[in-house]
Design a protein that fits this description.
There is one protein chain. The chain is an alpha/beta fold and 245 residues long. It has two domains: 3-69, Ribosomal Protein L25, Chain P; 78-239, Alpha/beta knot, CATH 3.40.1280. It contains six helices and 13 strands. It has helices at 20-29, 87-99, 119-140, 154-160, 201-209, 224-239; strands at 3-5, 11-12, 15-19, 37-41, 46-55, 59-69, 78-83, 104-109, 147-148, 152-153, 166-170, 189-193, 213-215. The strands form two sheets. Strands 7, 8, 9, 10, 11, 12 and 13 form a seven-stranded parallel β-sheet that branches. The protein has a six-stranded mixed β-sheet with strand order 1-4-5-6-3-2. The longest helix has 22 residues, at 119-140. It is elongated, with a radius of gyration of 20 Å.
Length: 245
């Protein structure tokens, strides 16, 4: 069953009031009725189960019957940083990376980024990305909202990620395999993915000066959006929970 996100102002005691698009989806698409159960999350890691007590096409009232810590969140604090691509490609990265359990997503501008920075558009872009992330979270039944940061410069993203245990820059010219990545007590993992055309040598050198190590994703040249999703999945397999218990 799909999860629905409940904001603090939607809840009074054990009663949750859902309005807007989610209410329409529950009533018109799912065609639920009073007495039916509903799965919800507070977006902070706690899941709720409730029973519908009142429903119209614009409003759904739910009585919470149980609460529990989420079992769908990765133990890995994973930050995915991707160079700016054309907007549809960024949308696709978010949809899939959220399903793979990332903690936060940081878009950035590098030397070969397309498009270039446009502050007037970036506010709307971030709002759109947050909406996409929320919808992907509900679909894959996660319980913690992904942090979406506004686009920033390359040096800023390097400074933002200081303190992480693993700092991984994927670069097609690297001779280092992910097989060398070792599990250890982890204060956070950061993945750095370049734009179409990849990082240049100067950017990799800057990243290495900030504690990053470059790794290869294999002998084939991947599209930037493919590399982002592949990298997140592989790192979750090695350090997170995609490898099973």
């Amino acid at each position: 069953m799909q999860k629905f996100i409940i904001e603090p102002d939607m809840r009074k005691g054990t009663t949750v009031t859902i309005t807007g698009q989610d209410a329409r989806h529950i009533s018109r698409v799912l065609r639920l009725s009073p007495g039916d159960s509903l799965s919800m999350t507070d977006g902070l890691g706690t899941d709720c189960t409730g029973e519908i007590i009142n429903i119209t096409q614009t409003l759904v009232q739910v009585e919470i019957t149980a609460e529990q810590a989420a079992g769908t969140e990765s133990p890995l604090d994973l930050t995915l940083c991707t160079a700016m691509l054309k907007h549809k490609k960024m949308d696709d990265i978010i949809k899939q990376a959220v399903q793979l359990g990332i903690t936060r997503w940081v878009p950035f501008f590098s030397g070969r980024s397309v498009p270039l920075s446009n502050p007037k558009k970036e506010v709307r872009q971030v709002e759109r990305w947050q909406t996409i992330a929320r919808e992907s979270l509900k679909q894959c039944r996660r319980s913690r909202l992904v942090e979406i940061l506004p686009p920033m410069g390359f040096e800023a993203v390097l400074d933002l990620t200081r303190g992480a245990t693993h700092k991984i820059a994927f670069w097609e010219k690297s001779g280092r395999s992910l097989k060398e990545l070792k599990t250890q007590e982890n204060t956070g993992t950061v993945i750095l993915i370049g734009p179409e055309g990849g990082f240049d040598a100067t950017e990799i050198r800057m990243a290495e000066e900030k504690g990053f190590r470059s790794y290869s994703l294999g002998p084939r040249i991947l599209r930037a959006e493919t590399a982002a999703v592949c990298a997140a999945g592989l790192v979750q397999y090695i350090l997170g929970d995609l490898g099973g218990a």
